[in-house]
Amino acid sequence: MKIWGILSGNRSKMRGCPKLNKTMIECPGCHLKLPDCHLDLPDRTNASGECLQAYSDLMSYTVAKQDPEFIHQHVVDTYAAQHAGGSTRNITVAFGLIGLYLALEKGYNGKQVQQAHMRIAKTRKVWPRLEPPLQPLVLTVMDVLRAGTHGEKDTMIRKWMAAVWESWSDRHTWIRMTTDELLASSGNWRSGKRR
Ligand SMILES: [Zn+2]
Question: In angstroms, how far is CA 26 from the centroid of its own chain?
């Protein structure tokens, strides 16, 4: 994937980045301000290179967990939904929001969200552009990274998910309807919690 090429290039730049760099750079997606390490801008994510690097660090944690619930999927969806606009693809934002809806309102775990994404991907829907919400976000990827223990990180992931989902409240009705319709038309759908 393209993201990994950018991240590996940026990782070597991070090593030369002074820890107490006074110049800050704001992420265009989540508005997180981080020390400017002059990292390359990702070409398919509306984020600063510095924010994407923090996301990569968090992904290292969630991938290493190898938990059956697959919390990693929630991190991917939350980050995607929080970085709408700019160069982020429409389908990336839509799938992020669908994942948050299924997790927070239907009780899906990450594995079940992943399976729903695969079913929806087969429907070949043309996704509209979803403009990012106007209200500022309180939580970002850094709040999860700064949480101390693994348990605290996982709790913070749930808080981050809820905050990002809430910020898209204008689109909730559309996301619920679209997801339910697509899952129903792709078969193998039972309403309510799936465990
Ligand atoms: Zn960001």
Answer: 18
